[in-house]
From TrEMBL, chains A, B:
<feature type="domain" description="NAD(P)-binding">
    <location>
        <begin position="7"/>
        <end position="190"/>
    </location>
</feature>
<protein>
    <submittedName>
        <fullName>Oxidoreductase</fullName>
    </submittedName>
</protein>
<dbReference type="InterPro" id="IPR036291">
    <property type="entry name" value="NAD(P)-bd_dom_sf"/>
</dbReference>
<dbReference type="Pfam" id="PF13460">
    <property type="entry name" value="NAD_binding_10"/>
</dbReference>
<dbReference type="InterPro" id="IPR016040">
    <property type="entry name" value="NAD(P)-bd_dom"/>
</dbReference>
Amino acid sequence: MKVFVIGANGNIGRLISQQLNEKGEEVVAGIRKPEQAAFFEDHDIKTAHVDLLGRPEEMGVTLDGFDAIIFTAGSGGKTGDDMTLLVDLDGAVKSMQAAEIAGVKRYIMVSALWAENRNRWNDAIRPYYAAKFYADEWLRTRTNLDYTIVEPGALTFDKGVGKINISGVEGGSVAREDVARTVVALLDQPQTIKRTIPVITGDTPIKEALKNV
Amino acid sequence: MKVFVIGANGNIGRLISQQLNEKGEEVVAGIRKPEQAAFFEDHDIKTAHVDLLGRPEEMGVTLDGFDAIIFTAGSGGKTGDDMTLLVDLDGAVKSMQAAEIAGVKRYIMVSALWAENRNRWNDAIRPYYAAKFYADEWLRTRTNLDYTIVEPGALTFDKGVGKINISGVEGGSVAREDVARTVVALLDQPQTIKRTIPVITGDTPIKEALKNV
Protein backbone atom coordinates (compact mmCIF):
# COMPACT_ATOMS: atom_id res chain seq x y z
CA MET A 1 0.00 0.00 0.00
CA LYS A 2 1.36 3.41 -0.98
CA VAL A 3 0.72 5.80 1.91
CA PHE A 4 1.43 9.53 2.21
CA VAL A 5 1.78 10.97 5.73
CA ILE A 6 1.05 14.70 6.07
CA GLY A 7 2.69 16.11 9.18
CA ALA A 8 5.17 13.22 9.24
CA ASN A 9 7.66 15.08 11.40
CA GLY A 10 5.28 15.36 14.35
CA ASN A 11 5.49 12.91 17.22
CA ILE A 12 2.65 10.75 15.94
CA GLY A 13 3.66 11.30 12.31
CA ARG A 14 7.14 9.87 12.91
CA LEU A 15 5.72 6.83 14.66
CA ILE A 16 3.20 6.20 11.90
CA SER A 17 5.88 6.57 9.20
CA GLN A 18 8.24 4.17 10.99
CA GLN A 19 5.54 1.59 11.69
CA LEU A 20 4.32 1.66 8.09
CA ASN A 21 7.89 1.27 6.89
CA GLU A 22 8.54 -1.66 9.24
CA LYS A 23 5.33 -3.29 8.01
CA GLY A 24 6.69 -3.11 4.47
CA GLU A 25 4.26 -0.49 3.17
CA GLU A 26 5.49 2.08 0.68
CA VAL A 27 5.40 5.20 2.84
CA VAL A 28 6.32 8.77 1.92
CA ALA A 29 6.78 11.26 4.74
CA GLY A 30 5.37 14.67 3.88
CA ILE A 31 7.54 17.35 5.49
CA ARG A 32 7.56 21.13 5.54
CA LYS A 33 11.28 21.88 5.84
CA PRO A 34 14.29 20.20 4.15
CA GLU A 35 16.07 19.77 7.50
CA GLN A 36 13.24 17.51 8.64
CA ALA A 37 14.35 14.92 6.07
CA ALA A 38 17.35 13.63 8.07
CA PHE A 39 15.25 11.62 10.52
CA PHE A 40 13.47 9.81 7.72
CA GLU A 41 16.65 9.22 5.70
CA ASP A 42 18.09 7.55 8.79
CA HIS A 43 15.12 5.19 8.72
CA ASP A 44 15.16 4.61 4.95
CA ILE A 45 11.87 6.45 4.51
CA LYS A 46 11.30 8.63 1.47
CA THR A 47 10.22 12.25 1.97
CA ALA A 48 8.34 14.81 -0.10
CA HIS A 49 7.73 18.50 0.46
CA VAL A 50 4.21 19.53 1.48
CA ASP A 51 3.16 23.13 2.06
CA LEU A 52 -0.17 23.37 3.85
CA LEU A 53 -0.13 27.12 3.23
CA GLY A 54 0.06 26.46 -0.52
CA ARG A 55 -2.61 25.50 -3.02
CA PRO A 56 -4.57 22.25 -3.05
CA GLU A 57 -3.72 21.89 -6.75
CA GLU A 58 0.01 21.76 -5.96
CA MET A 59 -0.57 19.32 -3.12
CA GLY A 60 -2.70 17.22 -5.45
CA VAL A 61 0.27 16.69 -7.77
CA THR A 62 2.33 15.43 -4.83
CA LEU A 63 -0.41 13.01 -3.75
CA ASP A 64 -0.96 11.54 -7.20
CA GLY A 65 -0.74 7.74 -7.27
CA PHE A 66 -1.06 7.09 -3.55
CA ASP A 67 -3.56 4.63 -2.03
CA ALA A 68 -4.08 6.48 1.23
CA ILE A 69 -3.36 9.75 3.01
CA ILE A 70 -2.85 10.18 6.73
CA PHE A 71 -3.26 13.70 8.09
CA THR A 72 -1.50 14.20 11.40
CA ALA A 73 -0.18 17.73 10.94
CA GLY A 74 -0.71 20.35 13.61
CA SER A 75 0.66 23.83 14.04
CA GLY A 76 1.32 23.05 17.71
CA GLY A 77 1.51 25.27 20.74
CA LYS A 78 4.57 27.26 19.66
CA THR A 79 2.81 29.25 16.95
CA GLY A 80 -0.25 31.45 17.33
CA ASP A 81 -3.85 30.69 16.53
CA ASP A 82 -3.33 32.30 13.12
CA MET A 83 -1.60 29.02 12.27
CA THR A 84 -4.31 27.01 14.02
CA LEU A 85 -6.71 28.53 11.48
CA LEU A 86 -4.40 28.24 8.47
CA VAL A 87 -2.86 24.81 9.18
CA ASP A 88 -5.09 22.73 11.47
CA LEU A 89 -8.28 23.91 9.76
CA ASP A 90 -7.64 25.33 6.30
CA GLY A 91 -4.50 23.25 5.66
CA ALA A 92 -6.41 20.11 6.58
CA VAL A 93 -9.27 21.00 4.23
CA LYS A 94 -6.76 21.74 1.45
CA SER A 95 -5.30 18.26 1.91
CA MET A 96 -8.80 16.79 1.50
CA GLN A 97 -9.31 18.79 -1.66
CA ALA A 98 -5.86 17.66 -2.83
CA ALA A 99 -6.81 14.05 -2.16
CA GLU A 100 -9.90 14.51 -4.30
CA ILE A 101 -7.91 16.18 -7.06
CA ALA A 102 -5.42 13.29 -7.00
CA GLY A 103 -8.18 10.67 -6.83
CA VAL A 104 -6.93 9.21 -3.55
CA LYS A 105 -10.02 7.84 -1.79
CA ARG A 106 -8.70 6.66 1.57
CA TYR A 107 -8.07 9.46 4.07
CA ILE A 108 -7.26 9.13 7.77
CA MET A 109 -7.60 12.18 10.01
CA VAL A 110 -5.93 12.24 13.41
CA SER A 111 -8.27 14.44 15.44
CA ALA A 112 -8.94 14.74 19.18
CA LEU A 113 -11.39 13.12 21.57
CA TRP A 114 -14.74 14.94 21.61
CA ALA A 115 -13.79 17.33 18.81
CA GLU A 116 -17.31 16.75 17.46
CA ASN A 117 -18.98 17.99 20.65
CA ARG A 118 -18.50 21.69 21.42
CA ASN A 119 -19.74 21.16 24.99
CA ARG A 120 -16.83 18.85 25.72
CA TRP A 121 -13.98 20.84 24.20
CA ASN A 122 -11.01 21.36 26.50
CA ASP A 123 -11.42 24.93 27.76
CA ALA A 124 -7.67 25.53 27.78
CA ILE A 125 -7.43 24.99 24.02
CA ARG A 126 -10.88 25.74 22.63
CA PRO A 127 -9.54 27.43 19.46
CA TYR A 128 -7.66 24.22 18.62
CA TYR A 129 -10.82 22.17 19.09
CA ALA A 130 -12.79 24.59 16.95
CA ALA A 131 -10.26 24.16 14.15
CA LYS A 132 -10.38 20.37 14.45
CA PHE A 133 -14.19 20.42 14.56
CA TYR A 134 -14.59 22.37 11.32
CA ALA A 135 -11.91 20.33 9.55
CA ASP A 136 -13.55 17.07 10.63
CA GLU A 137 -16.98 18.34 9.64
CA TRP A 138 -15.70 19.23 6.17
CA LEU A 139 -14.34 15.71 5.83
CA ARG A 140 -17.68 14.21 6.89
CA THR A 141 -20.01 16.37 4.87
CA ARG A 142 -18.15 18.05 2.02
CA THR A 143 -16.04 15.21 0.61
CA ASN A 144 -16.67 11.79 -0.87
CA LEU A 145 -13.50 10.40 0.65
CA ASP A 146 -13.34 7.03 2.39
CA TYR A 147 -12.39 8.69 5.61
CA THR A 148 -11.73 7.54 9.13
CA ILE A 149 -11.46 10.09 11.92
CA VAL A 150 -9.35 8.89 14.84
CA GLU A 151 -9.96 10.71 18.12
CA PRO A 152 -7.27 9.90 20.66
CA GLY A 153 -7.66 10.86 24.32
CA ALA A 154 -4.91 12.72 26.16
CA LEU A 155 -1.63 11.83 24.44
CA THR A 156 1.29 10.38 26.41
CA PHE A 157 4.87 9.47 25.53
CA ASP A 158 4.47 6.12 27.32
CA LYS A 159 5.48 2.92 25.60
CA GLY A 160 2.48 1.53 23.75
CA VAL A 161 0.71 -1.52 25.13
CA GLY A 162 -1.04 -2.54 21.91
CA LYS A 163 -4.44 -2.57 23.60
CA ILE A 164 -7.17 0.05 23.31
CA ASN A 165 -10.79 0.85 24.07
CA ILE A 166 -12.89 2.42 21.36
CA SER A 167 -16.45 2.04 22.62
CA GLY A 168 -18.17 3.81 25.47
CA VAL A 169 -15.17 6.14 25.75
CA GLU A 170 -15.80 9.13 28.00
CA GLY A 171 -12.21 10.19 28.59
CA GLY A 172 -8.76 8.80 29.23
CA SER A 173 -5.26 8.80 27.85
CA VAL A 174 -3.36 6.84 25.23
CA ALA A 175 0.25 6.43 24.19
CA ARG A 176 1.15 8.11 20.89
CA GLU A 177 2.68 4.77 19.90
CA ASP A 178 -0.72 3.09 20.23
CA VAL A 179 -2.43 5.91 18.31
CA ALA A 180 0.04 5.30 15.49
CA ARG A 181 -0.55 1.52 15.66
CA THR A 182 -4.30 2.11 15.51
CA VAL A 183 -3.99 4.34 12.44
CA VAL A 184 -1.73 1.81 10.71
CA ALA A 185 -4.04 -1.06 11.62
CA LEU A 186 -7.24 0.55 10.33
CA LEU A 187 -5.84 1.71 6.98
CA ASP A 188 -7.08 -1.39 5.13
CA GLN A 189 -10.11 -2.12 7.33
CA PRO A 190 -13.23 -1.16 5.35
CA GLN A 191 -15.51 -1.28 8.42
CA THR A 192 -13.69 1.84 9.67
CA ILE A 193 -14.67 3.89 6.62
CA LYS A 194 -16.86 6.91 7.38
CA ARG A 195 -16.46 6.32 11.09
CA THR A 196 -15.21 8.50 13.93
CA ILE A 197 -13.28 6.33 16.38
CA PRO A 198 -12.32 7.44 19.90
CA VAL A 199 -9.14 5.75 21.14
CA ILE A 200 -7.84 5.38 24.68
CA THR A 201 -5.60 2.81 26.33
CA GLY A 202 -7.66 -0.25 27.07
CA ASP A 203 -7.81 -3.99 27.26
CA THR A 204 -8.55 -5.15 23.71
CA PRO A 205 -5.79 -5.81 21.17
CA ILE A 206 -5.94 -3.08 18.52
CA LYS A 207 -6.86 -5.29 15.56
CA GLU A 208 -9.60 -7.02 17.53
CA ALA A 209 -10.99 -3.71 18.81
CA LEU A 210 -11.20 -2.36 15.26
CA LYS A 211 -13.25 -5.37 14.10
CA ASN A 212 -16.19 -4.16 16.18
CA VAL A 213 -16.02 -0.51 15.31
CA MET B 1 -40.35 43.46 10.93
CA LYS B 2 -38.69 42.29 14.15
CA VAL B 3 -34.93 42.22 13.57
CA PHE B 4 -32.12 41.10 15.88
CA VAL B 5 -28.63 42.50 15.21
CA ILE B 6 -25.73 40.39 16.47
CA GLY B 7 -22.61 42.52 16.89
CA ALA B 8 -24.71 45.67 17.09
CA ASN B 9 -22.00 47.67 18.79
CA GLY B 10 -19.59 47.39 15.85
CA ASN B 11 -19.31 50.21 13.32
CA ILE B 12 -21.61 48.56 10.81
CA GLY B 13 -23.82 47.12 13.55
CA ARG B 14 -24.57 50.56 14.96
CA LEU B 15 -25.42 51.93 11.53
CA ILE B 16 -27.71 48.99 10.76
CA SER B 17 -29.46 49.31 14.12
CA GLN B 18 -30.00 53.06 13.68
CA GLN B 19 -31.23 52.74 10.09
CA LEU B 20 -33.66 49.96 10.98
CA ASN B 21 -34.94 52.05 13.87
CA GLU B 22 -35.39 55.13 11.68
CA LYS B 23 -37.24 52.99 9.15
CA GLY B 24 -39.68 52.01 11.90
CA GLU B 25 -38.66 48.38 12.19
CA GLU B 26 -38.65 46.72 15.59
CA VAL B 27 -34.92 46.31 16.12
CA VAL B 28 -33.09 44.78 19.08
CA ALA B 29 -29.35 45.39 19.35
CA GLY B 30 -27.48 42.33 20.56
CA ILE B 31 -24.56 43.41 22.71
CA ARG B 32 -21.85 41.67 24.70
CA LYS B 33 -21.27 44.09 27.57
CA PRO B 34 -23.79 46.16 29.62
CA GLU B 35 -21.80 49.37 29.04
CA GLN B 36 -22.48 49.03 25.31
CA ALA B 37 -26.17 49.70 25.96
CA ALA B 38 -25.81 53.49 26.44
CA PHE B 39 -25.39 54.24 22.75
CA PHE B 40 -28.58 52.37 21.89
CA GLU B 41 -30.57 53.83 24.78
CA ASP B 42 -29.63 57.28 23.46
CA HIS B 43 -31.20 56.25 20.15
CA ASP B 44 -34.26 54.59 21.68
CA ILE B 45 -33.15 51.17 20.53
CA LYS B 46 -33.73 48.12 22.73
CA THR B 47 -30.77 45.91 23.61
CA ALA B 48 -30.32 42.28 24.62
CA HIS B 49 -27.30 40.38 25.86
CA VAL B 50 -25.68 37.95 23.44
CA ASP B 51 -22.69 35.78 24.30
CA LEU B 52 -21.10 34.26 21.22
CA LEU B 53 -18.88 32.18 23.51
CA GLY B 54 -22.00 30.67 25.08
CA ARG B 55 -24.32 27.92 23.89
CA PRO B 56 -26.56 28.07 20.82
CA GLU B 57 -29.46 26.91 23.00
CA GLU B 58 -29.15 30.02 25.18
CA MET B 59 -28.87 32.26 22.15
CA GLY B 60 -31.90 30.54 20.66
CA VAL B 61 -34.04 31.67 23.59
CA THR B 62 -32.95 35.27 22.97
CA LEU B 63 -33.77 35.03 19.25
CA ASP B 64 -37.22 33.54 19.76
CA GLY B 65 -39.96 35.46 17.97
CA PHE B 66 -37.79 37.50 15.60
CA ASP B 67 -38.34 37.68 11.83
CA ALA B 68 -34.70 38.14 10.86
CA ILE B 69 -31.19 38.03 12.25
CA ILE B 70 -28.27 40.13 11.04
CA PHE B 71 -24.82 38.88 11.95
CA THR B 72 -22.20 41.61 11.87
CA ALA B 73 -20.09 40.65 14.87
CA GLY B 74 -16.33 40.42 14.59
CA SER B 75 -13.64 39.96 17.17
CA GLY B 76 -11.64 42.71 15.49
CA GLY B 77 -7.93 43.38 15.35
CA LYS B 78 -7.44 44.05 19.06
CA THR B 79 -7.85 40.43 20.16
CA GLY B 80 -5.89 37.42 18.97
CA ASP B 81 -6.82 34.81 16.42
CA ASP B 82 -8.11 32.62 19.23
CA MET B 83 -11.11 34.97 19.15
CA THR B 84 -11.17 34.93 15.35
CA LEU B 85 -11.77 31.19 15.66
CA LEU B 86 -14.20 31.38 18.58
CA VAL B 87 -16.20 34.46 17.53
CA ASP B 88 -15.95 35.07 13.77
CA LEU B 89 -16.18 31.37 12.95
CA ASP B 90 -17.64 29.33 15.79
CA GLY B 91 -19.70 32.20 17.24
CA ALA B 92 -21.20 32.82 13.80
CA VAL B 93 -22.09 29.15 13.38
CA LYS B 94 -23.62 29.11 16.86
CA SER B 95 -25.83 32.04 15.85
CA MET B 96 -27.01 30.06 12.80
CA GLN B 97 -27.80 27.09 15.01
CA ALA B 98 -29.58 29.45 17.42
CA ALA B 99 -31.61 30.86 14.51
CA GLU B 100 -32.66 27.32 13.61
CA ILE B 101 -33.51 26.50 17.22
CA ALA B 102 -35.64 29.66 17.42
CA GLY B 103 -37.24 29.04 14.03
CA VAL B 104 -36.02 32.34 12.57
CA LYS B 105 -35.61 31.71 8.83
CA ARG B 106 -34.13 34.97 7.55
CA TYR B 107 -30.42 35.39 8.27
CA ILE B 108 -28.08 38.04 6.89
CA MET B 109 -24.32 37.54 7.19
CA VAL B 110 -21.96 40.47 6.76
CA SER B 111 -18.87 38.85 5.30
CA ALA B 112 -15.98 40.17 3.18
CA LEU B 113 -15.33 40.47 -0.55
CA TRP B 114 -13.87 37.23 -1.97
CA ALA B 115 -14.18 35.33 1.30
CA GLU B 116 -15.38 32.39 -0.82
CA ASN B 117 -12.18 32.29 -2.89
CA ARG B 118 -9.06 31.29 -0.98
CA ASN B 119 -6.84 32.51 -3.83
CA ARG B 120 -8.09 36.05 -3.34
CA TRP B 121 -7.89 36.34 0.43
CA ASN B 122 -6.03 39.40 1.71
CA ASP B 123 -2.60 38.06 2.68
CA ALA B 124 -2.33 40.46 5.62
CA ILE B 125 -5.38 38.91 7.32
CA ARG B 126 -5.67 35.39 5.93
CA PRO B 127 -6.78 33.88 9.28
CA TYR B 128 -9.73 36.29 9.33
CA TYR B 129 -10.71 35.29 5.79
CA ALA B 130 -10.40 31.60 6.70
CA ALA B 131 -12.80 32.13 9.61
CA LYS B 132 -15.27 34.01 7.37
CA PHE B 133 -14.98 31.35 4.66
CA TYR B 134 -15.85 28.45 6.95
CA ALA B 135 -18.67 30.39 8.62
CA ASP B 136 -20.15 31.34 5.24
CA GLU B 137 -19.79 27.78 3.97
CA TRP B 138 -21.66 26.46 7.00
CA LEU B 139 -24.45 28.91 6.27
CA ARG B 140 -24.63 27.81 2.63
CA THR B 141 -24.40 24.07 3.08
CA ARG B 142 -25.31 23.12 6.63
CA THR B 143 -28.39 25.22 7.31
CA ASN B 144 -31.83 25.62 5.78
CA LEU B 145 -31.90 29.32 6.56
CA ASP B 146 -33.07 31.93 4.08
CA TYR B 147 -29.67 33.50 4.09
CA THR B 148 -28.03 36.36 2.26
CA ILE B 149 -24.27 36.79 2.45
CA VAL B 150 -23.17 40.39 1.90
CA GLU B 151 -19.55 40.82 0.87
CA PRO B 152 -18.43 44.43 1.13
CA GLY B 153 -15.15 45.59 -0.39
CA ALA B 154 -12.66 47.63 1.65
CA LEU B 155 -14.65 49.47 4.31
CA THR B 156 -14.44 53.24 4.66
CA PHE B 157 -15.85 55.75 7.14
CA ASP B 158 -16.93 57.98 4.24
CA LYS B 159 -20.45 59.33 4.11
CA GLY B 160 -22.61 56.92 2.15
CA VAL B 161 -23.71 57.83 -1.37
CA GLY B 162 -26.62 55.38 -1.59
CA LYS B 163 -25.30 53.86 -4.80
CA ILE B 164 -23.52 50.55 -5.22
CA ASN B 165 -22.25 48.02 -7.71
CA ILE B 166 -22.96 44.35 -7.09
CA SER B 167 -22.17 42.68 -10.39
CA GLY B 168 -18.82 42.13 -12.03
CA VAL B 169 -17.13 43.28 -8.85
CA GLU B 170 -13.39 42.60 -8.80
CA GLY B 171 -12.38 44.93 -5.98
CA GLY B 172 -13.08 48.36 -4.58
CA SER B 173 -14.22 50.11 -1.46
CA VAL B 174 -17.54 51.04 0.09
CA ALA B 175 -18.72 53.24 2.93
CA ARG B 176 -19.90 51.36 6.00
CA GLU B 177 -23.04 53.49 5.82
CA ASP B 178 -23.84 52.07 2.38
CA VAL B 179 -23.13 48.52 3.56
CA ALA B 180 -25.66 49.09 6.33
CA ARG B 181 -28.18 50.54 3.86
CA THR B 182 -27.70 47.54 1.60
CA VAL B 183 -28.31 45.11 4.44
CA VAL B 184 -31.42 46.98 5.55
CA ALA B 185 -32.70 47.19 1.97
CA LEU B 186 -32.33 43.50 1.18
CA LEU B 187 -33.94 42.19 4.37
CA ASP B 188 -37.37 41.81 2.77
CA GLN B 189 -36.19 41.16 -0.80
CA PRO B 190 -36.78 37.47 -1.57
CA GLN B 191 -34.59 37.52 -4.69
CA THR B 192 -31.58 37.97 -2.37
CA ILE B 193 -32.24 34.70 -0.53
CA LYS B 194 -29.47 32.10 -0.85
CA ARG B 195 -27.30 34.63 -2.65
CA THR B 196 -23.81 35.96 -2.00
CA ILE B 197 -23.70 39.62 -2.94
CA PRO B 198 -20.48 41.62 -3.36
CA VAL B 199 -20.95 45.33 -2.59
CA ILE B 200 -18.76 48.29 -3.56
CA THR B 201 -19.50 51.94 -4.11
CA GLY B 202 -21.06 52.32 -7.53
CA ASP B 203 -23.56 54.09 -9.70
CA THR B 204 -26.84 52.27 -9.12
CA PRO B 205 -29.24 53.21 -6.32
CA ILE B 206 -29.16 50.43 -3.72
CA LYS B 207 -32.79 49.27 -4.11
CA GLU B 208 -32.48 49.17 -7.88
CA ALA B 209 -29.16 47.29 -7.74
CA LEU B 210 -30.72 44.64 -5.50
CA LYS B 211 -33.56 44.02 -7.95
CA ASN B 212 -31.11 42.44 -10.38
CA VAL B 213 -29.15 40.36 -7.93
